[in-house]
Amino acid sequence: MHKISKSIMMISALLLALAVGTAAAAEQQGLTALAAKPAAKNITLKDMDNKTWNLADLKGKVILVNFWATWCPPCRAELPSLERLWLQLNKQDFVVLAINAGESADTIFPFTGLLEPAPTFPILLDLDSAVLNAWPVMGLPTTFIIDRQGRIAYRAVGGREFDDPALVKQISELLQHKL
Amino acid sequence: MKTCLLQQISAFILLFATSSFIQAAESDAVQETAARVSAKTSHVIDPDGGTESWEADAEGISVNLAQIVPDRARGFFAARGFTKEAAEKYAHSCTFETVVRNEGDTAIDLHVADWRALVNQQAVKPMLEPAWQSEWEQMKLSQAARIAFRWSQFPLQQHFEKGDWGQGMTTYPLPHGACFDLAFSWTENGKSRSGIIKGVCCAQDK
User: Is A16 within 8 Å of B103 when comparing Cβ atoms?
Assistant: First the structure.
């Protein structure tokens, strides 16, 4: 009986270690730092309220540019975490621009209303996909973080949990660098 | 008090061990199924919809193919401005929701054009997005429909750094219900790598 208990405990410990390791691997979140830091191409698009946004006007701020669509499952999954990140960081110096791929405001608006929390950051309409085609985007979602100098500092291909501490730390460090 | 605490800890360990054994048994069942398909492939049947998916995990990359049933393809594209004829044409192909993850520490590059469906001793090329776009151009689909199509397909090329992943549809010119082995490939540090998922089957048109 003692041997069985000992075996169960040993197996339990092994399985626990395995489970923790697997969970850690699954939770791996982060942004890829771009060594070359290429200049971000300008963006001029209207948001759902018909307000025009120009990337050049935002120079000096840290900008997160997220490319997405309502029908893209990982895009849908990550949007609430993007809102939580947006609420968490200093809005004075941090801007989130979510650029939608080719859908109209009439399509997007009912969808965003279903999200919890619903996005309060600007959603820009790339109706002809021109910005998507001009930027180095191969698939959705893709996200870029632009530093205060207007350079692409980080990239993430595929969905992320944007309020993950590791990811918040990367963006917070960019915010700490003043011009 | 100490005895009670020890009993609680023992109960917890026993519960954990029992649930772990159950999980291990379920995992073995999946692996047994996988073993028939390929040593590194798992095969899952969705208990609700009955659709099947296959996943290969190899050397820092995972490739997952999930059947897209024709009705889902029809509905998806009809809701995005496709004509009935165009949606039907796409639904007629063998389509999978494809997810690729870089689970290693090194960047990888993918070219879906290099992938092959191996069936009846023939290597069938995937039907790629530009070929579909030519069809849509002839059918005069709207710009919005074509943009949705472009971004819904798995990208022709992808560069995945550590932690990156991508999702999109891939299609093969094979009939509904056809089964094949998928030979997939990628490059890592300039070296070509390849893997295989055995026994992948196109969805049936029910």
Answer: no
For the question of whether the overall pTM of this predicted structure is more than 0.95, the answer is no
ipTM over 0.85: no
User: CB pairs below 8 Å between A and B: how many?
Assistant: 88
List the single residue in A with minimal CA-CA distance to B153. A139
For residue A161, give the chain B residue with the closest CA: B163
- Contact state of B166 with A158 under an 8 Å Cβ cutoff: yes
Residue keyed to tokens 């689909």: B141
pLDDT in tens, B114-159: 999 999 999 999 999 999 999 999 999 999 999 999 999 999 999 9
Spatial contact of B148 and B81, defined as CB atoms under 8 Å apart = yes
Contact of B76 with B169, CB cutoff 8 Å = no
- For residue B151, list chain A residues with Cβ-Cβ distance below 8 A: 69, 72, 101-102, 129, 132, 139-140
* Residue B111: other Cβ atoms inside 10 A: 13
B156 vs A36, B57, B81, B128, CA distance in Å?
Answer: 24, 21, 23, 7
